[in-house]
Amino acid sequence: MISVFDLFKIGIGPSSSHTVGPMRASAAFVDALRAAGLLPRLQRLGVVLLGSLAWTGRGHGSDRAVIAGLNGERPDSVQPAALERLFLRASIEHWVEIDGRRVEFNAGTDLVFDTVTVTVVHPNTLCFTAYAADGAVLLQQRWCSVGGGFIALEQQVGVPAAEVIAVPFAIASAEQLLQITAREQLSIAALVLRNELALRPLEQIEAHMDRVVETMMACIDRGIASPGELPGGLRVRRRAAALHERLRAAKGRTVRAPHEIMDYVSLYAIAVNEENAAGGRVVTAPTNGAAGVIPAVIRYYRDHVEAADRAGIHALLLTATAIGALCKLNASISGAEVGCQGEVGSACAMAAAGLVAALGGNNPQIENAAEIAMEHHLGMTCDPIGGLVQIPCIERNAFGAVKAINAASLAMHGDGTHHVSLDQVIATMRQTGADMQSKYKETSQGGLAVNVPEC
Ligand code: SF4
After folding, report:
1. Which residues pair with 151 in a beta bridge?
2. Residue 213, SS3?
3. What is the Cα–Cα distance from 15 to 19, expressed in whole angstroms?
4. Which atom of ligand 1 is closest in space to residue 343's alpha carbon?
5. Distance CA 8, CA 230 (A)
6. 408: closest CA among 383, 373, 436?
7. Quick one: pLDDT band at residue 454, thresholds 50, 70, 90?
8. What's the gap in Å between 122 CA and the centre of ligand 1?
9. Is there an atom of ligand 1 within 6 Å of 13 CB?
10. Best of 287, 293, 382 to mutate for ligand 1, by most ligand atoms within 8 A of CB?
11. DSSP-derived 3-state class of residue 51
């Protein structure tokens, strides 16, 4: 079961698979050393980043994330400023701190971006090695960052989990989801909640959803209030603050642009993704690259829909969880595996479905909205310029959010019957991703990334 706790994780920018995942993998490796009783003999650490992590890891801050993880930091609690401080310490003084002890780690030589070795199991692979004082290898592990901040040991990728938690409704397809909800007379959100309750009490689930929404809304507010330039060398100007100012000024006018609401939705998504690009606090939804779509739709619902309430927002998140889980289970939410269709496409499908639920639509309409949203992202490649989650990612989230509202509206104008099912479109996303050349899958080796020169 993929839970609301899995798909909506509080972390930091700019990338779930290249920042959040590597930080978690580094911390997991240190945990493994600790569990094996090897920390007292540990003298030095070495880390090799492979595949997409090697190609675009610098732009995504993977080096800083790995070093923070080795120092015991976690994505949900690390202060964004700590990443630079720990990186500088490892670069200049050549050590990381584990359980209060200095361990040799030179960021310049012990952290390698290997763009030559081919990754066989997963395009985002990290190889960790721990050495004793005499140079003997104490432990070596290969971890994969499999998208959305999820990690797995290389030998566990694609292997069914050993421990299966029994939930009332095991869902493997949208068709099954519709059948079971019809049989049980449940909304999709209610079914997801019943499964969540098998793992945790209601108060914990609701508190998590409230914290997620609070973090998303705070992220929008920070983005709106932060002018200036994004880091990374592309010299991309932040647009949310100026756009917000223009929209605020337009409020006093008697004649307002008919498409103003779209500008607001774009503003919310851009604000989040600028914060993400700046390495700020964001919620993976379901990834960092696509982190703006769902918050923008929630803000649209909260601030622009009459009678919006907390229950509606919870229904949105729980319904989005069902759709995100299907995308992850039956295709992928990783740009490195299937391109941007898996990231912004999945986020758009989740948001569209969630919005229909919040607005009181029925289950077939929810499935229809997710299908429409995903269908019109099929084939979308991942080609971030300079390996930075800025162009095309920031605007792409604005389009994803607007499309999600459009898909929700179209679905609610119908009765839920349609030609292409959500299962078919997710299968198409998986197949298209498999056929997509690797240069379009988060390597910055093709598309916009090579046709627009870096500054
Ligand atoms: S192009 Fe899409 S998948 Fe690639 S980094 Fe940007 S948001 Fe993520």
Report:
1. 145
2. helix
3. 5
4. 3
5. 25
6. 373
7. low
8. 17
9. no
10. 382
11. strand
